[in-house]
Every structure is written in C-alpha cells, then in structure tokens.
Amino acid sequence: MVMGCKEIQATVGSNDVPELEAVRELGMAARLALHTRGLPLVSHETPRPVASHFLNMPKLAAERAVRLLAEVELVRLQQTGSTIRGERRTAPYHDELHDGPDAFAAFERKFNEAEEPKVELAGRLAESPRS
User: Fold this and answer.
1) Taking burial as the number of CB atoms within 10 A of a residue's CB, which of 9, 25, 122, 123 is the most buried?
2) Using CA atoms, how far apart are residues 131 and 113, in angstroms rounded to an integer?
3) 112 pLDDT above the threshold of 60
4) Which CATH number is 2-122's, of 3.40.720, 1.10.10, 2.40.128, 3.30.1150?
5) b/e 63-94 (16+ beta carbons within 10 angstroms → b)
C-alpha cells in the first residue's frame, strides 16, 4: 500500500488531483520519510522548504506529512505545547518499509473507490522488478 501511494505521489507531483487526496497524503508522508531518514535532530522549519523544492510537496502538506509520520512513529517530535520545535527521523530503510510490516496500517483515512484500484496497481508495479 505505502509503495503504491509513494509512486502515485511521485508521478502526480505538485499537481492537484482531488480524487486522490488520501493517496497523495500518504504518498507525501512516505516520500518524506524515505528521503529524510537518518537525519539528526533538525529544526521543524528545515524539512518544509526542502520537501517543497525537491519532492514537489506543497509547504502546507509537509506539516501534515510530518504529523502523520509522528502518528505512525517514524518521526519523533520535540514539542512545546502543540508547537513543534524539532524532528528526529526514525524511518526504516526502503527495503524494510517495502517488505516489512506496514507502518502506515493505522492510517485513519480510507481510500475512495477511485483510489483503491490505483493504489493496488501502483503497488504491484512497484514490486514487479523484484519478481
């Protein structure tokens, strides 16, 4: 599921596709986790412009992606109240995220009818070179 969403988001980039909202949200979080894993504690302001420039992620979406990563324990946040001060990445390597248990299984949003077949197909295509 995660790899399918990541591939769809990489393809869509910064284009707005309203019928793929949940897929894009999860895809952005997965891409951010994979591309920033292993970083030391960083200021919360650092990943947003990087995500916008290099990952075609809207700056406002980067905030939601970071919070989603914290929900699934792939990022540890340093907070003062509800204000995020810093972030430490704990995301696994690509193969562990791809082959291991689905860290995003707790993702609370359900895919709509348009998203489900696209995610399944993209996931199968992402795995095809591994066959």
Assistant:
1) 9
2) 28
3) yes
4) 1.10.10
5) eebbebbbebebbeeeeeeeebeebebebeee
- Whether residue 106 is predicted with pLDDT greater than 70 in this model: the reply is no
Residues 123 and 106: their CA atoms lie apart, in Å, by: 18
CA 39 to chain centre: 16
Query: CA–CA separation, 45 vs 4, rounded Å?
Result: 28
- Give me 34's structure tokens: 């994979």
Q: Find tokens 């995500």 and name the residue.
A: 51
Q: Which helix or strand (DSSP H or E) is residue 21 part of?
A: helix 21-36
DSSP line for 36-88:
HTT--SEETTSHHHHHHHHH---HHHHHHHHHHHHHTTSEEEEEETTEEEEEE
